[in-house]
Amino acid sequence: MIIYGVYIVSKSGGLIYNLDSNVPKIEQERSFTYPIDLMLDYDPKKVSVVFNRKDGINVGHVLTAVNGMPVNGNTLEDGRDVKTTLENSENYPVNLKFCRPKLTTNEKIVQASTFYPLYAFASQLSPEPKSSGIETLEADTFTLHCFQTLTGVKFIIISETGLSGMDMLLRKIYELYSDYVLKNPFYALEMPIRCELFENKLKSLLDMVEKTGINNLDK
Amino acid sequence: MSRQASRFDTKKVNAEFLTLTYGALVTQMLRDFENIEDVNKQLERIGYNMGMRLIEDFLARTSAPRCLEMRETADRIQQAFRIYLNVQPTISNWSASSDEFSLVFETNPLTEFVELPTDLTNLRYSSILSGCIRGALEMVQLDVQCWFAQDQLKGDNVTELRIKFVRRLEDAIPAGED
């Protein structure tokens, strides 16, 4: 029972909360000799592998460190350009660390607001009148479960595939939201949720569900 | 977990505690504002803001579906009073077009130990309730008017809260719900 993340999207389509849980961190560090046998793409924002996967370094992984020195975009921390460093044979052997790219907060916000019209679109596409929007969306590596409240707030869970009873968990999260977010006098409606109590309760709920399964959810 | 045992058996608090706290709030506001009309307006506004949040709690606990007629809405409001104030108002005085009804309270927990001084006859002591109903219904896309038709504090036999449907807020209905 793995839950990868929880998102809350406000009535107007803005991401007001997200929690990543349990996403396996894939990080590989290898020593390379000249010439490097990975095909790299030097984008100004990130250096990523485009071809020739090896030793767990997969296509799409992003370079995070050279000889232990962190990489920002396509420059090293000390200002050197990654491309020129890796093309210079004097710098070899070199230790490169790759990891799976993580979504930045900005990207998450963009995705949440992309989901919003998709949801509306789905309800309009429906051959039957009065259809809801997307409730589950399945892919081969995850399932997205969405629950929209009558007031228009969307609760979204990204989990592994083949789980049942996620609607119960979504309702439970809704309860936590109404208890710990809306009863917090310092929380302004529609704004990002920064409530520590809520976060803690949500984490312990997810922990419990992951350990003992959905059936033990006390109603 | 936040809620143990049964769904409605949440943390209970003595009704007198609420009554007295609310009394303190009203007293403080009478001190802060010169004008009684302002106090009425502020109480209503506080209620409105409470209602906007409280509705989520109500929906999360009851998992009530969307109302498609006023009579359902009336039942839900009655249920909400039972949950939050432990009083059961009676629903009565339906208008012919079914767009207006009254909630009649034999007792009002907010006014338990209260007598209105003669110089405060304009004060709508419990107007937090009407604000609350308005705010909560607005979040589920129902625009209503809500006012006190009778008030025990003003010498009436019962407290009567009148609720009138104005319109559905069609633009605000979330996609997949309309």
What does this protein structure show overall?
The complex is a heterodimer of chains A (219) and B (178). With 219 residues, chain A is α+β, with helices and mostly antiparallel strands. Chain A is 27% helix and 27% strand. Chain A has helices at 82-87, 105-125, 166-181, 196-212, and strands at residues 3-9, 15-20, 27-32, 39-42, 47-51, 62-66, 69-72, 75-76, 94-99, 136-138, 143-148, 154-159. The model of chain A has no long low-confidence stretch (mean pLDDT 86). In chain B, strand 1 and strand 2 (100-105) form a beta hairpin. A 4-stranded antiparallel sheet of chain B has the order 1-2-4-3. In chain B, helix 2 (36-62) crosses helix 4. Helix content of chain B is 42%, strand content 16%.
Features of the shown structure:
heterodimer; A: 219 residues; alpha+beta; five-stranded antiparallel beta sheet; elongated; B: 178 residues; four-stranded antiparallel beta sheet
Q: Which sheet architecture does the biggest sheet of chain A show?
A: 5 strands, antiparallel
Shape of chain B: globular
Name the structural class of chain A.
Answer: alpha+beta
Q: How far apart, in Å, are the first and last alpha carbons of chain A?
A: 18 Å
Strand content of chain A: 25-35%
Gyration radius from CA atoms of chain B, angstroms = 17 Å
Low-confidence stretches of chain A: none
Distance between the termini of chain B: 34 Å
- The helix count of chain B comes to 4
Flag low-confidence runs of chain B: 1-6
**Major protein interface:** A-B, 30 and 26 residues
Q: What would the principal axes of the Cα set say about the shape of chain A?
A: elongated
N-to-C SSE series of chain A?
A: EEEEEEEEHEHEEEHH
Mean pLDDT of chain B: 88
Give a quick precis of the structure.
The complex is a heterodimer of chains A (219) and B (178). Chain A is α+β, with helices and mostly antiparallel strands.
